[in-house]
């Protein structure tokens, strides 16, 4: 993969030139302190090291600047005759050839390594981003599949227990489909052709069995319905003949919202 920004790894701004100037001054001070010990030996060593360090941290342009200024300082201060550049002898020629050649070679290698490192970091960031996108899409696909399966399970539940359904309640009526639509969809599956009673009120659809439930029990579960078992009174025969019936409430989390379905157990 071609990464055009790999050459832009170095920091921008004037701070890198301040760092380069500090490195040049530090190299000159260190070489001056070592001059009584080294004399004319390796006059450009400290400036070479400074140029390489500047190349590693600040980029190519500051490193070349340190190299050129270091060459002038090394020839003027640490090549005999010291403090004079009017005479060019063999020592000056050796410095003018060896110091730039070695410095350019080293900083070129460092530049290539830094570009390769930055390119690898960019590719790693792109790969990480794509991996996170794939994970997010995969999670969304799994959630959508789970919601679809839950919707199919709820519709099958409505069709299977149509005769015993009491009510369907949407937990979030503002963001859910009307529960009456599910009742109507399930009602078509009744073998006797009846459609039941599906009156919709405040996110609640009352189904076939709700007319046989005691009004107090129906009001209680309509306001505070939770998944699980509920004991409710059903009309048995006469007008005031009520018998307790075990009812079960199940929760369905679908792509259209969350629903609670209350039915009488067989």
UniProtKB/TrEMBL annotation:
Membrane topology label: Multi-pass membrane protein
InterPro entries attached to this UniProt entry: KdpD_sf, KdpD_TM
Domain of life: Bacteria
Location within or outside the cell: Membrane
Membrane-crossing residue ranges in chain numbering: 37-54, 61-79, 91-110
One Pfam assignment: DUF4118
Official protein name in the record: DUF4118 domain-containing protein
């Amino acid at each position: 993969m071609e990464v055009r920004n790999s050459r832009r790894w170095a920091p921008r701004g004037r701070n890198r030139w301040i760092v380069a100037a500090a490195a040049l001054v530090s190299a000159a001070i260190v070489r001056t302190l070592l001059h009584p010990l080294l004399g004319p030996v390796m006059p450009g060593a400290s400036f070479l090291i400074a140029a390489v360090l500047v190349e590693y941290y600040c980029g190519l342009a500051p490193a070349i600047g340190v190299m050129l200024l270091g060459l002038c300082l090394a020839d003027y201060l640490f090549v005999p005759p010291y403090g004079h550049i009017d005479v060019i002898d063999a020592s000056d020629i050796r410095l003018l050839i060896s110091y730039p050649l070695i410095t350019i070679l080293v900083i070129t290698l460092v530049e290539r390594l830094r570009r390769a490192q930055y390119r690898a970091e960019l590719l790693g960031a792109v790969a990480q981003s794509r991996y996170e996108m794939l994970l997010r899409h995969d999670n969304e696909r799994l959630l959508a599949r789970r919601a679809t399966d839950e919707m199919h399970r709820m519709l099958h539940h409505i069709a299977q227990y149509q005769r015993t359904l009491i009510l369907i309640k949407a937990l979030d009526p503002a963001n859910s489909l009307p529960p009456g639509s599910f009742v109507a969809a399930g009602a078509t599956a009744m073998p006797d052709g009846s459609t039941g009673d599906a009156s919709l009120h405040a996110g609640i659809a009352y189904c076939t069995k709700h007319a046989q439930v005691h009004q107090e029990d129906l009001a209680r579960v309509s306001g505070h319905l939770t998944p699980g078992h509920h004991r409710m009174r059903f009309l048995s025969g006469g007008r005031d003949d009520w018998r307790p019936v075990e009812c079960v409430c199940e929760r369905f989390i679908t792509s259209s919202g969350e629903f609670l379905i209350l039915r009488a157990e067989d």
